[in-house]
Amino acid sequence: MTPGALDLQAIRRDLHRIPEPGFQEFETQRYILNVLARLPASRIEVKTWRTGVLVRIKGTAPRRVVGYRADMDGLPVEEATGLAFRSVRPGYMHACGHDVHMTVALGVVEHFVHHPVRDDLVVVFQPAEEGPGGARPMRDSPEFSRWKPDWMVALHVAPEYPVGAVALREGTLFAGTSELFIDLIGQGGHAAFPHRAKDMAVAAAHLLVQLQTVVARNLNPLDAGVVTIGRMEAGTKQNIIAERARLEGTIRALSTESLSQMKERIEALVRGIEEGFSCRATIDYGANYQQVYNTPDLTREFMDWAAREGGVKVIPCEPAMTGEDFGYFLETIPGFMFWLGVDSPEGLHSAGMNPDERAIDIAVSLLTRYFTWKIERDAAV
Ligand SMILES: [Zn+2]
Ligand SMILES: [Zn+2]
Q1: Cβ contact 280:274 at 8 Å
Q2: Which of these is catalytic: 25, 73, 120, 130?
Q3: 350 alpha carbon to ligand 1 midpoint, in Å?
Q4: Would you say 173 and 293 are in contact if contact means Cβ atoms under 8 Å apart?
Q5: Rounded to an integer, what distance in angstroms lies between the CA atom of residue 67 and that of residue 64?
Q6: Strands 151-158, 335-341: pairing kind
Q7: In this structure, is the dihedral angle defined by the CA atoms of residues 127, 131, 134 and 135, taken in order, positive or negative?
Q8: DSSP for 24-79?
C-alpha cells in the first residue's frame, strides 16, 4: 500500500451518506475535489463542468487518451438498508450504486498517479445520469471535447451477479429509452350531454389500447421493444365529461432504428385519435437515452483478457431494457460498459440496495491492470 493511500471503503461510505439529485451534486463534487487534492498535483489536472469533475492523468509518452466514466447522482428513494452509514438526506439514496462507481473511479485515478503509463487517462465524474441526463451535454462541452478520449470504458454495479464476476456482451448492452407524455385536450361538459362535449376519458382509453399494437404489430418479433404507460389521468369529477387526459409512460428498444420506428407509430396513432375524437394532442418525449452499444472488437478483446488474466469470472449476458446515458459517449467514442457483480439482496433503485464493498477493490484492480495491459499492447503494435 502506498503511504497515505486512499481508504476506498471510507470514501464509498462518505459518498453513500450524501446522495444528491442530478445537476445538484454540489457536496459530492466538493468531496471528490477534496480527495483529488490529496494526490500529487504534479501528475494530474482537474477541471469541473457544472457539478461534474474531469481529471487528466499525464502519461509518460502519450500517443492516445484513454477515458473512464463514473456517474454521480442519487435517487428519490427512502433508504431502508439500516446501515450505519445510510443516507443523511431524507427521501434520497444512492440506490443505483453510483457511490460505488465514483469510488472505483477515484481508485483508478490514485493507481495511475502512482503508477504512470504511457498514454494519458481522462476520468470523468458525470452528473445527472438518472435524469435529466448529463452524458450528452458533458460529451458536447468544450471542457470534455478538449480532452476527448480515443476510447472509453464504464461499469455499472449488478446486484444479481456475484462479487468477482463481470458480465457484458458485444453490441447492444442496454436499450435506447425515452419517456413518453401524451396530453389530450377536448371539450368538457355535463355528464348528461355527451353530444356537446369531446370526452377525453374515452379518447385516452382508446389510445391506451392502441398503443399496445406499437410493438406487437410493427416491430420484427425477433427484435425487442416495450411501451409501458405507467400513469394515466383524466377529468376532474364523476359527473363532468373530461376535458383533458394525460398518459405517462416509457418506450424502450434494443436499437435506435426500432425506437424511432416506435415513435413514428405512436405519432400516427395520436394523429388518429385527434381526428377520430375531435381533440388536440401533444407528445413530449421527456428524457431520452441513447442505446449503450459496446464496440465489438474492443469488447471481445476485454472479455478474452479478463477471462485469462483478470482474475474474474466473465459472464456473457443478454441485453437489458434498462437505460444508461453512457450510450451518448459511446455514440461518438469507441468503448464498452460492463456489469460489475455486487451481489445485493435487493435490486437497483430499491430501498434495500446494498452492494458488497469487496467489489470495489476487485474493480479497481481489474480496470488498472486492463488499462495497463491494453496501453502497452497497443504501443507495441
Ligand atoms: Zn439507475
Ligand atoms: Zn445507475
Answers
A1: yes
A2: 130
A3: 10
A4: yes
A5: 10
A6: parallel
A7: positive
A8: --HHHHHHHHHHHHTS-TTTEEEEEETTEEEEEE--SS-SSEEEEEEE---BS---
Question: Distance from the CA of 310 to the center of ligand 2, in angstroms?
Answer: 24
In tens, the pLDDT along 283-296 reads 999 888 889 999 99
- Expressed in angstroms and rounded, the spacing between residue 108 Cα and the centre of ligand 2 is 19
Note if 99 is an active site residue. Answer: no
Annotated active-site residue 130? The verdict is: yes
Distance 366 CA to ligand 1 centre (A): 23
pLDDT band, very low/low/confident/very high, at 132 (cuts 50, 70, 90) = confident
Ligand lying nearest the CA atom of residue 97: 2
- Catalytic pick from 20, 25, 71, 119? 71
Helix (H) or strand (E) holding 166: strand 165-168
Cell 452528473 belongs to which residue?
127
How much is the pTM?
0.89
Ligand (nearest to CA of 158): 2
Pairing of strands 313-316, 165-168: parallel
How do 120-126 and 165-168 pair as beta strands? Answer: unpaired
Centroid of ligand 1 to alpha carbon of 367 (angstroms): 22
Phi, psi of 96 (to 5 degrees): -115, 10
CA of 347 to the centre of ligand 2 (A): 11
Residue reference for cell 455499472: 156
Strands 288-289 and 244-253, by their bridges, are unpaired
State the Cα torsion 266-272-278-280 to the nearest 10°.
Answer: 30
Closest-approaching ligand to the CA atom of 98 = 2
Backbone angles phi, psi at 12, to 5 degrees: -60, -40
How many whole angstroms separate alpha carbon 200 and alpha carbon 69?
45
Report the pLDDT averaged over residues 102-109. 98
**Residue 4 scores a pLDDT above 80:** no
Q: Would you state the cell numbers that stand for residue 371, as one nine-digit string?
A: 488499462
